[in-house]
Amino acid sequence: MKTTLSDSVFCKPGTLVLLVLLLMGVIPLGAQEKKGQPTGRPVMAPATPPVRTPARNTGRPAATFPATAPATAPATNPARTPATTPATTPATNSGNTFPSSQGAAAGQPPQTTSYAVNGMQDPEKKRIDIEQADFLEFNEAIVANAQRLIGNVRIRHNDVLMWCDSAYAYTGTNRVDAFGNVHINQGDTAHLYADMIYYDGDLSFARAIRNVRLVNKSTTLFSDTVDYDLIPNVGYYDDQGKIIDSTNVLTSRIARYHVDEDIVYFYQEVVGYNEDYRLESDTVKYNTATGIFYIQGPTTIRDSVNTIYAEDGWYNSRTGEAQLLKNPLVYNEKQQMKGDVIDYDRNKGYGKARGMIEIIDIENNVIVKGRNAWFDEVTETAFITDSAQFIMISEGDSLFLHADTLKTVADTIPDEKIIKAFHGVRFYRTDLQGKCDSLVYFSRDSTIQLHREPVLWSEIHQMSADYIEMITRNPAPDEVQLRNDAFIISRQDSAMFDQVKGKNMTGYIVGEQLDHIFVDGNGQTIYYARDKGNIIGLNRAESSKLAIQFKEGKAFRISFLGNPEGRLTPLPQLSEEERRLSGFDWKERIRPQSRADIFRKTETSAAPMPVPQEEAGPGPLSTPEEEK
Hints:
Mean pLDDT: 79
Number of strands: 39
Low-confidence stretches: 1-72, 75-123, 616-628
Structural class: mainly beta
Shape: rod-shaped
CATH topology of the domain at 454-598: lipopolysaccharide transport protein A fold
Largest sheet: 39 strands, antiparallel
C-alpha cells in the first residue's frame, strides 16, 4: 500500500528528518545517531560516466542506458491529478527540501517541492532537482538504489525541464528513468516527447523510446528510438524515422538532427517528398529553415515532368531550384540532358548547363552537344554555344554539324523541332559534306536550309548557290534545291571539271549518288564528251532550261528544253579560261574531311548573318548560394 508523506505517522518533528535521511542513503539503515557524536555519514563516490564513442557514422554517443525499460515502472495513482506545469517555479534549494506536511487543497495542483537526488550537490556538476511529485517511494524490492516518483513528476537540470507520469531517480548518480507522457524541454526551444526517456545528467544525454517526437519550431522528428545530446542539441535515430516540416516529409534509416543549426543529415534509404516532387537518395543534408537539400551521394528527384539525378549539389524544395554538380542528368520520356554542371528551376521549367553538355532528343534521333546551354521547357527552346555540335542519327551513318551557336525551338506541329545553327556552320557525313553561315533543320521532314554562301559536296560533286535546301525522305538527301546563282562542279580528274550553271537548279539523288539535274533559267554547261570511254573534246552549251542525266558521277546525257546553242571543241584548241564557266570556284580546300574537321575555322567572303535579338539566348540562371 502506498503512503503519502503528508499522511505518514512519521510526519512528526525529528522523525520526519530521520526518515528522509534514511531514504536518501545519508544514514545507513540500522545506524543510530549518538547525541554529541558525529553520525559517521559515508562518503558517496559519484557515478563514473561512460566514455563517449561514436556509433556508426551518426556521431552519436555510445548507448549508456538499458535497451528496454526496467521490468517494473513506478505505479501511478489512478486518482492523481494530471501532470501540470506551475506558472512559477520556486528557486531550487541546494540542499534537501522535503515535501510539505500539508496535502494539496481539493481541486488545486500539488504544491511544488524540490530536493536533490542524492542529498548533496556536486561542486562541479549540477545535480538533478526533483521539483514535484505526488508520491515518493523507496523500495529495494522493486528497483535497487532508486527513488520512485509517482504522479505529476517535474524534474529540472540546468536549463532542462522534464515532465512525466512517473520516474526512477537513482541515488548516487545523476540519472533518471522517466515513464508515461514524458516531455523534455531545453531553453524553450526543442521539445522531446516519448513513452519512456532515460536521462543522464552528467552527460546531458537522453534516450527516448516509443512514440518519440522531437519538436523544434515547425519541424518534428518521429521515430521509435531517439538519442538526444542536449549539450550540442543533436538528436539521432538509427532504425527508421521521419521528419515533417512546413514543406516536406522525409524518411530514412539513419538521421542526425542538429537542432540549433536547423540541419538534418540523412543516411540510407532517404526519401523526401511533397505534392510537387519525390527525392530518393543514400546521403542528404537538409536545412529545415530553408527547405534546401544538399546532395552528398547518388540522388534522384522526380516531378510531374522531369527526373533529375546528381551525386553532388543542392535542391530547393520550396522554389524548385537546383544546382547539380556531379554526373548531373535531367531527363523525361522525350529528352535528356547531361553536363558538368546543371542549374535547374523546376517551377519555371528553365535551366542552364555548363561543361561537357549533351542533349538527346529521343523521338527525333538528334543529339546536341556544347559547353554552354540554356533551356526553357515552357517554350521548348534551348541554346547551345561554345563547341556546339548537332548530330542527326541514322542507321549506318550520322551527320555531324558544328556552328558557333545552336538553337532548338518547337515546331507548329506537336512533338516536332526546329534547329537553327548560326555562324561558321560545317557538317560532315561520309557521303555528304557542307558549309554555310547559317542553317535551319526541320525534324518533321528532315529538311535542311542553308543560308549565306552555302556549299555542298557529294563524292566528286560540288554544289553552291545563294540558298540551298535539302529535302530528305530517307537517311540521305533525296532532293537538293539550289536558288539564285546555282553552280554544280563535278571533278573528272585534277584538271578537268564538268560544270552546270543556271539561275535555279534541282538535283535528284538516287542511291546516295547524283542521278539527274534540272536547270531552270540561264542554263549553261561544260562537260567533257566521250566516245567509248575516251575524251574527244569539250562540249559547251547554253539553254534557258536543261536536264542533265548522270551515270557513275559523270554527265552522259543532256536534254535542251529551250533554244540551245552549243559546240564541241577539241581539247588542244582550248585555253584554261575557256574550260571554265564564269564564277567557277573549286572549294576543296574548305571541304570538311572528317567529323573532327567540322571544328576547323575557314575563311568566308561574306560578313556573318547577324543573329536576331530573340535568337541571342538568355543570360545565366541566377541560383541561391549555400548558407555559410
